[in-house]
Amino acid sequence: MTANAADKRDYSLTGPNSGPGFTPSEWYSSRIPRKRLKELMKRSDRPSMVNYSIWLGFVLALGALLIVTWGTVWAFPIAILYGVFYGSGADSRWHECGHGTVFKTQWLNNFFYQAASFMSLRNPYLWRWSHTRHHTDTVIVGRDPEIAFPRPPSIGVWISNLLYIPALTGELNKMLKLSFGKLTEEQKDFLIEADRNKAFWASRIQLAILVSIAGLSISLQSWLPLMLVGLPTFYGSWLHHIMATTQHAGLAEDVPDHRMNSRTVYLNPFFQFIYSNMNYHVEHHMYPMVPFHALPALHEEIKADCPLAYPSLWAAYREMIPAVLKQQTDPNFYIKRPLPADAMPTPDYQRPVLQAAE
Amino acid sequence: MATWIEACAAEDVENEDLIRFDHNEQTFAIYRSPDDEYYCTAGLCTHEEVHLSDGLVMGHIIECPMHNGQFDYRTGAPRRSPACIKLKIYPVKVENGTVFIDIGEPS
Ligand code: FES
Q1: What local confidence, expressed as pLDDT, does residue B72 receive?
Q2: pTM above 0.90, yes or no
Q3: Do A152 and A328 form a contact (C-beta atoms < 8 A)?
Q4: Which of A99, A209, A349, B84 is the most interior residue, by most CB within 10 Å?
């Protein structure tokens, strides 16, 4: 049995739910003394330099190993590892540098933002503005352009999204259209006029690089150049997306409280490194000013006011999978995260657009 | 015409930090720079009207707590998107340990 049409919500940014979301002051934040918050927000190049050097070091070393072992059976496991560092590692770093909090030195943020955007095949301007809206209106239907799992979720799309393949072909499609200066109505809703030309040029440059790499592969009659640049986004982003699926899937919509619409999940150190600590997702949304390396400390600061963090990726999936299956027939179902007894309750809320519709 | 009002004690603002100051219907941000100068801007970010007082001062930059947009608080000029529109700035003077702002003629 599937949900009937009347139960389906319109997630488009130009449809009936696209009215106002919540005002900034309506969103809940756990209290942190200003002095401590300033310590947590403090920018520093050092921890990020260490993290990014290790990451880039692995990308370069594994890329070199892939060249050396190309044509042998060793190329296969090395390509898997290379893909994870390139595709999954870049996807979380694109996001962090987009917030501008990674490095104290701004040009480093900008440099890695552009590089990681290319490595994840994302348009840096389009995604900056889409992500800005995602932070203003996190999981607010008709406002948030980044709701990955609209209800009722299609299981096929859900599983293929885990591997990010349809989304990546979507990004390529966007790249092509943007190169020709074309924007959809939805994109016009969040991408400001002043950045549209920059978005078009960024896509043209990304496309030119990809076409050059493809040309090199053809002239060398070898897949190797494309396996090093371009294709790793396809064969290596899966780990990032398996982790990123836990961010909001199956949780409440239209609630101005990140404790209710986002998840914090404990991960092993390797996953956490690849994912740039984005497993502290409640914390990231509540305080986007805090750089990735301070998120574990922020978590300690506010965890008594938040639902219990999931002990593992598997624990999060064990809750998400049945919820997503149930949403097939009941799109109104969602996982309600219990707050600790001493936590501040979610404030009363109601979306203005829904009030108006009553 | 200049309209000076008392905003706060100079020591209320920590070095390289800011505080919020509300007056009638208006809200302001009062800054103390690393070189101990005082500045005042409109209190709300020009992007989506978030109080800048929850943001982070770094040198002469205020970073908005919502989307990390940045402004130079001395001139109000936007320095990083999504902040694109200039912040209003107000003249400031410090007399006998008290910060006064002139809310008559913002620039
Ligand atoms: S509200 Fe200040 S940058 Fe968006």
Answers
A1: 98
A2: yes
A3: yes
A4: A99
